[in-house]
Amino acid sequence: MGTPEMTFEDRLLDELKLVVATGSAAGTAPAPARSTRRRRPVAVAAVAATSAVALGAVLITQLNQPAYAVSRDDDGSVRVSIFDYRDPDGLRARLAAFGVRAQVDFLPFDRTCREPRADYVPAAAMPLALVEWPEPGRNDSYFRIHPQYIAPGQTLVYTVRVNRKAHDQRAAIRLANGPVAACDQVPA
Questions:
Q1: Where are the beta strands (DSSP E) in the chain?
Q2: pTM above 0.70, yes or no
């Protein structure tokens, strides 16, 4: 039936295909032959069941998709790709594993964090090379952080306001001296 490296969903789909093809589940006796007049409802039910299992497998796969990916590039920068704005704590922890102290907040589009919540580096003193974005016009969904521009004791603050209906987001990246208070959400 299935191989050990197959996922649960793949094995379940194989089992359902066997049920549809033979009219019986694995390990059970085949169903007695039926008249052709009764096969149509059974076939319709089997197709519906197959569709439901396939849809379930797709939904399970989507739920198991990672929300982000973090990796180190050859130049020492940290590449961050975000696929779904749903796990800010996980992203913060993953960045910490790469040596980047960060505060990450994903907010509804109509909300923002009450400020001030940190001693921010003034905009004029922010190192422009801290964050590198893909070239304009490219459909890449990543940015790169150059940790050498984050001094000891500083925190990268990454705040994103997400509008899921319009598939839009507004991101702000700042640098703070010392710790950053938790985000107290207020209307934007």
A1: 68-72, 78-82, 102-108, 111-113, 119-120, 131-132, 142-145, 154-163, 168-177, 185-187
A2: no
